[in-house]
Design goal:
seven-stranded mixed beta sheet; FAD/NAD(P)-binding domain; 379 residues; 18 strands; alpha/beta; five-stranded parallel beta sheet; globular
Length: 379
């Protein structure tokens, strides 16, 4: 039975463990935290990600709520600009939820899956060659521990210690900061299945429900040079009221990572999720791309007895799709933050588009389906 070391027990690491175990791998997940406490804020999962989670047996339908569209609004006035459906062309749905709830159902699946062991309180220190492929050293409270496997997967986030070990490029500041809040829906407002986004010059805000109890996630992207709400409190009164009811969760400087899929020097090391390609949140695809990575990597490894060929295939499949997603992220960033009068031209152009035509623009993204290893190896 082939064995894998997964560094990191976040969304990317847990999904990778499940995907590998489903293909007969023995997986050991090493996480630096002493406990997997509920952390984070809201998260969006589009149909492409949900398809993978469904196939891996994750009870994703038990958490969060369904969303049917993104409503784009002019920030200052609150005027509706456009409605963008977020279902796939064949009707597969979209969910919004708390990151901690996603982590919980992933952990439930991991704990019930044969062949996965979890090790907490282990900080990646170094790696070298092992008798079976790769040998990793982790620091613990009791001293260093060693693990050997056929393959190591770096799922340790934007500041990946594994990437640092290989002297790969560090994360780059984006010049933007995310201000996050947790709120409760106004009882006077009708529950909405829509994600709302208010667009303004150099800033935008996103709000959506994350559970049936009416909890809301609010995130406001602002310039790093002025990491305050600034003019946002003077925007649409509905948004301002939500912020006034909200509990601040903190601010997160947003960084990006130059995409990397495998280690230099033909070492049996792969990167997934933010460790591979941390991106800005303008297309809400960070978690979805991590989930896709996990499935495709496992499928490529299952389809080829050669680790080197499997990792090369993984990169060949993921790099073009990720590149297209990053182009979409850059497009949204530019268009969302237009100042007047350029924003008025944007609004007029969007007003001419039907919801169906706007959904077709994203069909390439949302219609993606997880495939079995044989099919993936032939793409």
């Amino acid at each position: 039975m082939p064995g894998a070391i997964v560094v990191g027990a976040g969304i990317a690491g847990l999904t990778t463990a499940l995907a590998l175990a489903s293909r007969g791998w023995s997986v050991r997940v090493h996480e630096r935290a002493d406990g997997l406490d509920p952390v984070g804020a809201g998260i969006q999962l589009s149909p492409n990600a949900l398809d993978v989670l469904d196939r891996l047996g994750v009870a994703i339908g038990s958490v969060g709520v369904a969303a049917d569209s993104v409503v784009l609004r002019d920030g200052p006035s609150g005027r509706r600009i456009a409605t963008v459906p977020v279902e796939s062309s064949d009707g597969r749905g979209y969910r919004v939820l708390h990151r901690a709830d996603l982590q919980r159902v992933l952990l439930d699946a991991v704990r019930s899956a044969p062949g996965i062991a979890m090790h907490l309180g282990r900080t990646f220190a170094s790696l070298g060659d092992g008798s079976s492929g790769i040998r990793a050293v982790f620091e613990t409270a009791a001293g260093p521990v060693h693990d050997e496997a056929d393959l190591l997967i770096a799922a340790d986030g934007v500041r990946s210690a594994v990437a640092s070990h290989f002297r790969l490029q560090p994360p780059r500041p984006s010049g933007a900061v995310a201000l996050r809040y947790s709120s409760t829906a106004d009882p006077g407002e009708s529950p909405s299945a829509a994600i709302e986004a208010w667009l303004g010059a150099r800033r935008h805000a996103v709000r959506y429900r994350i559970d049936e109890a009416g909890r809301e996630n609010i995130v406001i992207i602002v310039p790093e040079s002025d990491p305050t709400l600034g003019p946002v409190l003077g925007w649409d009164p509905r948004l301002a009221a939500s912020i006034e009811r909200a509990r601040p969760l903190g601010s997160w400087p947003l960084s990006t990572v130059e995409p990397r899929w495998r280690a230099p020097g033909h070492r049996p090391v792969a990167f997934v999720g933010d460790a591979a390609h941390a991106m800005l949140p303008y297309a809400a695809q960070g978690a979805a791309m991590a989930i896709e990575d996990a499935f495709v990597l496992a499928a490529c490894l299952g389809a080829s007895p050669s680790r080197a060929k499997a990792l090369a295939r993984y990169e060949a499949l993921r790099a073009p799709r990720l590149g297209k997603v990053l182009q979409r992220v850059a497009f949204h960033r530019r268009v969302y933050h237009l100042p007047r009068p350029l924003s008025l031209a944007r609004d007029a152009a969007l007003a001419l588009r039907s919801p169906a035509s706007l959904r077709r623009d994203l069909a390439w993204l949302y219609d993606w389906r997880a495939e079995d290893g044989a099919s993936i190896s032939e793409i």
